[in-house]
Amino acid sequence: MGMKQIWDGEQLPPVGCEVLIHLASLGRWVPHTVSGYDIQPHLDGDDAYHRIFITVDCGHGVINQRLLRDVRPLHWREEVK
């Protein structure tokens, strides 16, 4: 099994590492495990840009996808305003 990788938020999170995603139904950031990626073309058809989705699993068989910009490292904390 080995050591879990800790994602620093600088590159794509590796498959198998834990990240935070926001669940509106709970109103908070919740840890999930990265299980894959899905790369989609830009919505306006620009070949130079793509949308990167991170596929995550909560550990109970529920799969979610979030844009890369909506995934946070485990050590991330929301700024208090």
Order of helices and strands: EEEEE
Structural class: mainly beta
Strand content: 35-45%
Q: Give the number of helices.
A: 0
Q: Unreliable runs, pLDDT <50, ≥5 residues?
A: none
The amount of helix comes to: under 10%
Strand order of the largest sheet: 4-3-2-1-5
Mean pLDDT: 87
Biggest sheet architecture: 5 strands, antiparallel
What is the tally of beta strands?
5
**Whole-angstrom Rg:** 14 Å
Could you tell me how far the N terminus lies from the C terminus, measured between alpha carbons in angstroms?
40 Å
General form? globular
List the helices and strands and how they pair.
Blueprint: E1 18-23, E2 28-41, E3 50-57, E4 63-67, E5 71-72
Antiparallel strand pairs: 1-2, 1-5, 2-3, 3-4
How does this model look, in words?
- The chain has 81 residues and is mainly beta.
- It is 0% helix and 43% strand.
- It is built from no helices and 5 strands.
- It has strands at residues 18-23, 28-41, 50-57, 63-67, 71-72.
- The chain has a 5-stranded antiparallel β-sheet, with no helix packed on it.
- It is globular.
- The model has no long low-confidence stretch (mean pLDDT 87).
